[in-house]
Write a structure and sequence with these properties.
The chain is of the alpha/beta class. Helix content is 33%, strand content 17%. The protein has 2 domains: 143 residues, Aspartate Aminotransferase, domain 1 (Alpha-Beta Complex), CATH 3.90.1150.10; 244 residues, Type I PLP-dependent aspartate aminotransferase-like (Major domain) (Aspartate Aminotransferase, domain 2, 3-Layer(aba) Sandwich). It has 13 helices and 15 strands. The strands form 3 sheets. It has a 7-stranded mixed sheet with strand order 4-10-9-8-7-5-6, with helices on both faces. It has a 4-stranded mixed sheet with strand order 1-2-3-13. The longest helix is centred in the last third of the chain and has 18 residues. Bound molecules: pyridoxal-5'-phosphate. The site of pyridoxal-5'-phosphate has 15 residues, from helix 5.
Length: 408
C-alpha cells in the first residue's frame, strides 16, 4: 500500500479489482461458518439455503473433513500431474466410489470441477464411439467452459461466445418424441437426471428408462450429470439409483470434495482405457484429483455413508416447505429431496421474496433458467428444528409479500 493512502474497503476492492460475474451480486461478507450458518464479522448468523449451490451437503467446517485436510496438508499438497504417480488419497477415493457404484462404473478419472468432468466425459464418448454428435437437453446447465457451454440448453448465456462445438442436438426433457433424434451417429446423450438450473424439473413417466433404452438401441453412451444431484441431495446417494437407470458415464463434482474443489467422471475400465492409448494422454490435468481435495472427499464420503443422510432428506424437505404452496404468490413447489424450487407467479415476486429472505438472514438465490423460482437446497445436515424455523420465516415472508398486487 502506498504510505499515506487510505486502503479501499473490502467491498470497494471486490467491486473494483475482482472480476464480476454480474453487476448486482449480493456481496454479503462472512468471516466464518458453522453447521448450516454463515456468520458475519459482527456475529450475525445467516441460514444457508443454497449450500454454496449444492456443495456444502455436510454443512460447514465438519471436524472430520477439517482434520483430513490438515493431515494431508502435512504430508504433501501436490506431487505431479494426474495419472502418473500412485497417490493414496486418490486411490482411497476411487476405492470408496467404486464400492458403492454398479460394476460397470468401476474406473474414476479425477478432475478439478464440474465443467471439467463434463469436458472429460464428452471427449471420452467421442473417443470410445468414434462418433461426433452429442445430444443434450434444453434448459440444461453443465458448466461454463467452451465444451460445456456448447451443450447448455439456453441461448442467452451462450450466444455471444460462438462459434461453439458443432454437432450438438437438443432434446426436450420429458419429451418421448424427441428420443427419435438420438440416432446411431450420436456419440452420447448427456442429461441431468433431475434438471437443476431449469428450476428442479423431475423426470416423468419413466423418461430416463426410455432414454436408456434408446441409447442401448443406437449404441449411444448415456452420460448422467450428477454434479448437483449427487452425494445424497435428492434422497439417494446418487439420483440414478432412485430412477433405476445406470448411466455409462457418471459426472460428479460440487459436494464430492466436501467443500474442496474436485470433480470426477466415472465409467467402465474398457471405455476409460481409450483415453490412454493411440494416442496416449488423451485427457490431461495438472491439479485434477488434488491430494488435499481427495482427502477431504474421502472424509466427506465416509461421513455421508455412515450417517446415511440421504434417507432423511424427504422428511426435511417436507418440514422446510410445509404449507408454502397455499400462498397466492406461489405457482408451484417442485422438489427432489433437498433440491427444491419455490416457483412464484412472476420473476418480480421472486425478486421481492429474495430481498425479504436476505433481510431475514436466509440465503437463497434464483435458478439460471427459471427466473420466477428461488432455490431451497440447504445442507443435508439441517435438522428438524432448523427446518421448522426456516419454514416459519418463509410463511411470514409470503404473508408479507401477499399476491404482489399491492407491491410498491
Ligand atoms: N453441471 C451441473 C448440473 C451444475 O449445476 C454445474 C454447476 O452449477 C456444473 C455442471 C458445472 O460445475 P462447475 O461450476 O464446478 O464447473
Amino acid at each position: 500500500m502506498i504510505p499515506g493512502k487510505k486502503r479501499m474497503s473490502d467491498r470497494e476492492i471486490f467491486f473494483r479489482h475482482l472480476a464480476l460475474t454480474s453487476f448486482e451480486p449480493p456481496a454479503l461478507q462472512f468471516s466464518h461458518a458453522e453447521g448450516i450458518y454463515l456468520i458475519t464479522p459482527q456475529g450475525e448468523k445467516y441460514t444457508d439455503l443454497s449450500a454454496g449451490y449444492s456443495v456444502n451437503n455436510l454443512g460447514y467446517n465438519h471436524p472430520r473433513i477439517i482434520e483430513a485436510i490438515r493431515q494431508q496438508a502435512g504430508l504433501y499438497l501436490h506431487q505431479t500431474v494426474y495419472g502418473e504417480f500412485v497417490q493414496s488419497p486418490q486411490v482411497e477415493l476411487a476405492s470408496r466410489l467404486v464400492s458403492v457404484l454398479p460394476p460397470q462404473l468401476d474406473c474414476v478419472y479425477l478432475v478439478n470441477s464440474g465443467a471439467e468432468a463434463i469436458e472429460g466425459a464428452m471427449k471420452l464418448a467421442k473417443r470410445f464411439t468414434g462418433r461426433h454428435y452429442i445430444a443434450a437437453f434444453k434448459k440444461a446447465y453443465h458448466g461454463s467452459t467452451h465444451g460445456a457451454l456448447s451443450i447448455m440448453g439456453d441461448e442467452v448465456l451462450k450466444m455471444k461466445y460462438r462459434p461453439l462445438l458443432p454437432g450438438i442436438v437438443f432434446l426436450r426433457f420429458n419429451c418421448f418424441e424427441d428420443l427419435d433424434l438420438i440416432t446411431p451417429e450420436v456419440a452420447a446423450v448427456i442429461v441431468e437426471p433431475v434438471q437443476a438450473e431449469a428450476g428442479v424439473i423431475v423426470p416423468q413417466n419413466q423418461f430416463l428408462k426410455a432414454l436408456r433404452q434408446r441409447c442401448n438401441e443406437t449404441g449411444t453412451l448415456l452420460i448422467f450429470d450428477e454434479i448437483q444431484t449427487g452425494m445424497g441431495r435428492t434422497g439417494s446417494l446418487f439420483a440414478f439409483e432412485k430412477y433405476e437407470v445406470v448411466p455409462d458415464v457418471l459426472c460428479l463434482a460440487k459436494a464430492l470434495g466436501g467443500g474442496m474443489p474436485l470433480g470426477a467422471f466415472i465409467s467402465s475400465k474398457t471405455i476409460m482405457d481409450t483415453l490412454a492409448h493411440n494416442p496416449a494422454l488423451g485427457h490431461l490435468t495438472t491439479f485434477g484429483g488434488n491430494p488435499v481435495s481427495a482427502a477431504a472427499a474421502c472424509a466427506s464420503f465416509d461421513i455421508l455413508k455412515e450417517s446415511r443422510l440421504w434417507e432423511s432428506v424427504e422428511e426435511k424437505a417436507h418440514l422446510l416447505t410445509k404449507g408454502l404452496e397455499e400462498y397466492s404468490a406461489i405457482r408451484e413447489l417442485r422438489k427432489s429431496g433437498l433440491l427444491i424450487a419455490l416457483d412464484f407467479l412472476t420473476p418480480e415476486l421472486a425478486s421481492r421474496a429474495l430481498e425479504f429472505m436476505w433481510a431475514n438472514r436466509l440465503i437463497s438465490d434464483r435458478f439460471l433458467f427459471c427466473p420466477s423460482a428461488l432455490r431451497l437446497s440447504p445442507p443435508l445436515i439441517i435438522d428438524a428444528k432448523e427446518a421448522n424455523s426456516v419454514n416459519q420465516t418463509l410463511h411470514q415472508i409470503l404473508k408479507q409479500l401477499g399476491d404482489g398486487k399491492t407491491m410498491d
